[in-house]
Amino acid sequence: MSLQEINARIANAETAAGRPAGSVKLIAVSKVQPNERVRDVLDQGHRCFGENRVQEAAGKWPGFNAQYSDIDLHLIGPLQTNKARQAMELFSTIHSVDRPKLAKTLARLAQEVGTCPDLFIQVNTGEEEQKAGILPDDADTFIAECRALDLPIHGLMCIPPVDEEPSLHFALLAKIAGRNGLQGLSMGMSGDFEKAIALGATHVRVGSAIFGERVKPEG
Ligand SMILES: *Cc1c(COP(=O)(O)O)cnc(C)c1O
Questions:
Q1: 44-97, pLDDT tens digit by residue?
Q2: For ligand 1, is residue 32 a contact (CB within 6 Å)?
Q3: Fewest CB within a 10 Å sphere: which of 43, 53, 106, 219?
Q4: What is d(CA 35, CA 64) in angstroms, rounded to the nearest whole number?
Q5: Residue at 94 is within a domain
Q6: Is 190 in the pocket of ligand 1 (CB under 6 A)?
Q7: pTM score > 0.85 for this model?
Q8: What is the per-residue pLDDT across 112-169, written as a single tens digit (0 to 9) for each?
Q9: Which residue range is the domain that position 76 belongs to?
Q10: Helix (H) or strand (E) holding 75
Q11: Which atom of ligand 1 is nearest to 191's Cα?
Q12: Contact assessment for residue 73 and residue 92, using Cβ atoms and an 8 Å cutoff
């Protein structure tokens, strides 16, 4: 599917939900995609991209940054504390703040560097063993903890379980954000971004629908 088609579907979903045009940001998820596919999307004028691994992003994006201006890079995958400094240099936004230790590290580095990326707290809405994210019952406390650390918490992020109706998870995320006064909702991927927009997504993370199937396993 072309970038243009995805943008049109986002615009339709915004209208259908009675939301202003342009209220949803499209993060083109370029992880493990070959450079020529990424370049093709850059050449169409798109500038907002998502990567799930710091190492991969560090190898791929400095080259593109030298050739294209205003690239806006988002980290959407788990972050190890020993890569936090590098992540803060590479990314405008980190969607995967998921534990107190990481929050404390980011806060310390933010003090030291004087700036901090926009942050989203990842919530494990499906309470899945293998998935990162704070549990829904612990979210309010963790949000307060991050705020006490002066972290710029912009919103919440979730990845629903593959075998469940995603709308239930999007609604839960929106509810937690609402009662905590958070505006940002990072939710919705290739298969369900329209449902996410209907439930208030401000950031959708779309990979394969733009770039085609990922050619390498995610490792
Ligand atoms: C890979 C990935 C996506 C994009 O998935 P698609 O189904 O290809 O759109 C979105 N969010 C996260 C966190 C991902 O890791």
A1: 999 999 999 999 999 999 999 999 999 999 999 999 999 999 999 999 999 999
A2: no
A3: 219
A4: 9
A5: yes
A6: yes
A7: yes
A8: 999 999 999 999 999 999 999 999 999 999 999 999 999 999 999 999 999 999 999 9
A9: 3-211
A10: strand 72-75
A11: 7
A12: yes
